[in-house]
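Appendix C. Worked example: Guanidinium exporter
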Amino acid sequence: MAWIILLLAGLLEIGWAIGLKYTDGFTKLVPTVLTATSMVASVVLLGIAVRTLPLGTAYAVWTGVGMVGTVILGIVLFAEPATAIRLGCISLIIAGIAGLKLTA
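Step 2, the predicted output written as structure tokens:
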């Protein structure tokens, strides 16, 4: 169950990271409220997950999920570059997340 909570926390991290783009420097009310809510919920769920998961593993997985998802959505939503090097680095992060999950 802790891994599911951690995955949800990572998905919310993606949400608030992408939401930052839509807040326009926190000048738009609805995107700002949604982004702030996602931030708080993400950290709360991370806190719940670390009750049973090792802190270092949980934090690394949380940031990794957020990082990979944010980069992928940046490519899809904002036409950010999808170079071979960027995609290779994303693959390394995914491998690291999988490795941490397998050893926890």
